Amino acid sequence: MKPRPFDYVRPDTAEEAVALLADYGDDARVLAGGQSLVPMLNLRIVEAEALIDISRIAALDAIRDVGDRIEIGAAVTQNTLLAWPQLAKKLPLVAAALPHVGHFQTRNKGTVCGSIAHADPSSELPLALALLGGEVVLKSQRGTRVLAAKDFQKDMLTTARAGDELIAAVHFPVTSGSGVGFREVARRHGDFAIIAVAAVAEKKNAVRLGVGGMAGKPVVRQIRSDNAADAIAAWAGELEGYEDLHASAAMRRDLFRNLAPLVIEEAIRCAA
Amino acid sequence: MRRVNRNERVRIALTLNGRKLAAEAEPRTLLCDFLRHALGATGTHVGCEHGVCGACTVLVDGVATRSCLTLAVQAEGREVKTVESLAALDGTLNPLQQAFRDNHALQCGFCTPGILMSFTDYLSRNPRASEAEIRDVLSGHLCRCTGYAGIVAAVKDVTKSSP
Amino acid sequence: MTDQLGKPVRRKEDPALLSGRGRYADDLPIPVGTLHAHVIRSPHAHADMVGIDAREALAHDGVWAVITGEDVRKLSDPFLAAVKAPVQQWTLAVERVRYVGEPVALVVAESRYLAEDAAELVAIEYQPRDAVLDPIEACKSSAPLLHPQAGTNEISVRDFRYGDPDGAFARADRRIAMTVPFPRLSFTPIECYVVVAQHNAAENSYDVLANFQGPFSMHPVMARALRVPGPKLRLRIPPDSGGSFGIKLSIFPYIVLIALAAKITGRPVKWTEDRIEHLVAASSGPNRVTEIEAAVGKDGRVLGLKLDQLEDYGAFLRAPMPGPLYRMHGAVTGAYDISHVEVKNRVVLTNKMPASLIRGFGGPQLYLALERLMDRIAVELQLEPLEVIRRNLIPAQKFPYRTAAGALYDSGDYARAVDIAIGDGRLADLKKRREAARAQGRHYGIGFAAVVEPAMSNMGYLSTLMTAQAREKAGPKNGAVSMARVTIDPLGAVTVTADVTVQGQSHETVLAQIVAQELGLSPDEVEVVLELDTARDQWSIAAGTYSSRFASGTAVAAHMAAVAMRDKLKSIAAKQLNVLSDDVELAGGKIRSRSNPDNALPFGRVAGTSHWSPVMLPESMAPALSETAVWTPPELEPPSSDDRINTSLTYGFIFDMCSLEIDPVTYQVRVDRYVSMHDAGRILNPMIAEGQIRGAFAQGVAAALYEEFTYNEEGAFLNGTFADYLVPTVGEIPDVEILHHHSPSPFTPLGAKGLAEGNCMSTPACIANAIADALGAQDIILPATPRRIHEFMQAARQNGGPRT
Question: Which of A160, C195, C563, C609, by CA, is between 20 and 30 Å from C741?
């Protein structure tokens, strides 16, 4: 279980990283925390001509509060964000979801942007980003573009990132004051979720509800809290779900039916 | 910018348990292999090579890290600490090690070094960790011998005696 | 005398293991010039191998060899097996592959990285065949044959009758039957297999380091495969091993493979198995389908029992299989007094990895069926499950008790142990919790299990699979040899060696306790060396660490060697102290007169006498330098002509009860309270005993709720990583309250029985019974995953079933 050979390049700046991506294109992989990428390299299930290690680029290792949103750089680890003193106040949903991402040891190295980039369908951070309407900042020598979360993640492990683009940061909108709820079901503590459900209680009677693990990417809906039961039932019927070793599609739908009311209730209680 | 081409062997220098060391590695050499077979620090064990079992956990600049998910070249210039650093030079166990012995927290001992390193990091951040926090950190390790009860008890012992 | 035994002495093993100073197989120095191997494995469950083209791989830098089944066929013989069927197995697939993960070629290169690179360049052409995965399907005449020359996949069938089962079934008020499947799983030690082999062409001898666990009955199997006499295969076992749980028996085909690679390349070769290889192909316990039926009276008394046990060993039946079917044979009636028994044992081969030794070894399969049946009897007769268990337990006054199938249960008071376990309000508490939960409409259940835990296998048990006539022809097999040695150095320092392999069971500590106790020393003063070298150390075919043989076997041998040494030292000291040897005692590091303790000599001074001054020894005494004890208990007789067999030497007892809840939101099972009562006779070190019990309990929970090897219909393996094969973390293991009752074994001088496998046997059954109670269900499939619970609840909802 040893990786195939690859070039290793460790740029000192984001500009150098982007230049390297322009050279290598799809043949390169960006290495930040490596917690998803290196297992796949060890298993020889991904190809990489080169690894571009961005973990030491200081400019990418920053959490910036820019008023209505929080910008999290590509080298920021999950545990760095978890330890950020403003997290619970400014991003309560992220604060609730992050402890479910892997384990203490993998959060030490795994990055927030890396998790978004990996785009696992049941993963917690892509769900939070989609539910909150966050953005992904993509840099290349062609320029910078900012994509809404819903436009970024296309499908299971598939995103809109072009081969020469670096995910430089993600933006999470600040949701101070809104109530949030988050729950997931996994086989073991710290495993990938079978499904994850999150909610934000926004205005009076309006809840944004999101679910990961029911489709190729997280899906989000706005529902009325006074009509939540019907909305959940209707939506559960529409969600296709998928089957894997741990759950049938029918079980996923039932998990959604069971979890969604609890998460909505949590969000409303937390808002009050 | 540091660049190492595939199949090129370069000298990787790092600090291991307080001592500056260097040895040759390719870009793809995993840190666990580098520590064990190039630097001779065999206390760090390899159990799965895909980041789940936690046996290979070491500290890189004080932070608990899966050495099977880290390339040797990524640790270049860093300070790496392994289980060999924990006991005093005369062999006296540190309080965490001693608590493991007192609570029969190990049997075959293969997963133990990784667990010790995880808690070396975690307890330095949170010396009075609650049982729930201890269990959360321990869930990043697989142990097949003990059923975990002794490990939880050992770490609790250390947190209780922490000022 | 210092009383060491029975105390929670801290482990001797720990300081090194806690400091990164363990010496595991992959840590040890390798010979200069060692090459590294990587195994290429079959992606098909069943296929003919049409061709292998290794030219490109061989041209790759640093590659020394690509070894195939043809090389292996030329240079070695197929492995010997216990069942005489025309099924041949070599260490690499020859002509045909029969399971996903089967080794088909070995790449040997200058590093593991290069070997894996080159492996991707080896082109292997396969012609796929139909595969058969299900054991029942595999028995049908229409099933694809794994080994056409055998003419069937069902390669061994044996019928046994004890007492008058037909009469019992005719007399009974009721017949209650169930079909109980047991899944495939492994206990995946965190350290995988390691082999380092050297070949000396001048002597045609092999020197192999491997983290093999025994039994050493496999040594002749390996030597025969390599076509050398035993002494030409020197096998060395490292001082430390990262867990085994039975799994590291199945390294033996790789020992032969890497030895052949050393011969072919002329260089030392090392292979370190990786986790993916380990999961797909190392070993697993056999899956079993048991048809079980009881003849019962209205009062729940079981008059007769019938079992049809169909065990699936995967693609090959490797020695010493089918052990799990026969290791429990004498104990097939478990903890119950049942005189009339019929057993049919069937062995079937399917396109899965070969099954072999695993902790519990046949016990989990047997007791899941038996204890589910006992529970079912209670449900059908509307009795309390615990009452049915109690009415059938073997009464205390019947010990030593001869079971219907021939086991001689040494000691026990099962009813008393149950009373203690349910006492102090424990059972009442479980019932209160259930009542409260059910009042709120929750799915909450209670389960029980009573099991007998055998230890130290009779080396003749497997011959029960032959008919009495065939056994007569083959010659008797029986007994179980244990060996240990106590040595004294010139300054009187004591060293112990023994016939066990280290895997974490704390044998160093317990051996030090045993020997220190007899010699009046502290355990710290006794050195224990357990790395094992077949060229230099004492061993027999029974050597190794398996079948819980330590407490009932090796510990006894060590005790005997220590007593022999003690008695010699007493005689030597008697002469020096000028007293009778009856008046000499060894205590506190001194050897002294019991009646006048001031008349004393330091232990080292007396002990060193044999080195410095053998002439001064008492007349006719051989110097007290080294005492080796060899022990085999007379109770382990060969199978009788009517197929009765005392399968093990000691028989412990376990009674488990638990309560659990099914989470209606997540479909997960949450064990609420678990009580486990053990009678393992005398406990040698209570701290270590508790550790062993907790470890087995965790694996029992894993088998009940998490771990399963899954294959799809085509035979693809679906648990290739630790992300898919669910070894429980701390978050999944509930607490367990451990209780003890002590009925020392009269058959061993120390009175100790095995205790480290029991919860692998009892816990899956206990949890299954509690789930059945919680759901009002009859058929419980383990592991009871959320997916299976959900399916059950969904079906019950559709059928408007009870309480769901």
Answer: C563
> For residue A43, what is the nearest residue in chain B, using CA coordinates?
B50
Interface B-C, measured as beta-carbon pairs within 8 A, has a size of 167
Q: Which two tokens stand for residue B37?
A: 């077979």
pLDDT in tens, C417-429: 999 999 999 999 9
| CB distance A90 to A171 below 8 Å | no
Sheet with B57-60, strands from edge to edge, namely B19-25, B10-16, B79-81, B57-60, B63-66
Q: Rounded to the nearest 5°, which phi and psi values hold at C220?
A: -60, -30
Q: Give residue for tokens 């390349």.
A: C265
Give which of C733, C734, C732, C750 is closest to C742, Cα–Cα. Answer: C750
**Tokens, residue C639:** 């199978």
Chain B nearest-CA distance from A104, in A, is: 6
Interface probe with C: pick from B104, B122, B151, most Cβ of C within 10 Å: B104
Q: How do beta strands A166-173 and A135-140 pair? A: antiparallel
Interface of B with C in 125-154 (CB under 8 A): 135, 138-152
- HEC per residue, C262-322: HHHHCCCEEEECCHHHHHHHHCECCEEEEEEEEEECCCCCEEEEEEEEEEECCCCCCCCCC
Query: What does the alpha-carbon distance between residue C221 and residue C218 come to, in Å, rounded to a whole number?
Result: 5
Quote the minimal CA–CA distance from B89 to chain C in Å. Answer: 11
Choose the mutation target among C39, C114, C667, C718 for the interface with A, i.e. most A CBs under 10 Å: C667
Q: What does the pLDDT read at residue B46? A: 98
Mean pLDDT of chain A: 96
Alpha helices in A133-227 (DSSP H): 149-152
pLDDT at C437 over 70: yes
Residue type, C16: A
User: Phi and psi of C345, rounded to 5°?
Assistant: -110, 125
* 3 state DSSP class of C516: helix
Is the minimum CB–CB distance between B122 and chain A shorter than 8 Å? yes
In the sheet with A135-140, reading across from the earlier edge strand, the strands are A63-65, A69-73, A166-173, A135-140, A143-148
Angstrom CA distances, C423 to B4, C212, C378, C739, stand at 69, 44, 21, 11
Q: Cα(C425)–Cα(C37) distance, rounded to whole angstroms?
A: 59
Q: Is C686 on the interface with B (CB under 8 A)?
A: no
How far is the C-alpha of C447 from the C-alpha of C436, rounded, in Å? 17
Whether the CB-CB separation of C277 and C101 falls below 8 Å is answered with yes
With a cut of 50, which residues of chain B have pLDDT below it? Answer: none
Q: Which two tokens stand for residue A164?
A: 């020469």
Q: Secondary structure of A17-70 in the HEC alphabet? A: HHHHHHHHHHHEEEECCCCCHHHHHHCCCCCCCEEEECCCCHHHCCEEECCCEE
Phi then psi for residue A152, to 5 deg, are: -80, -55
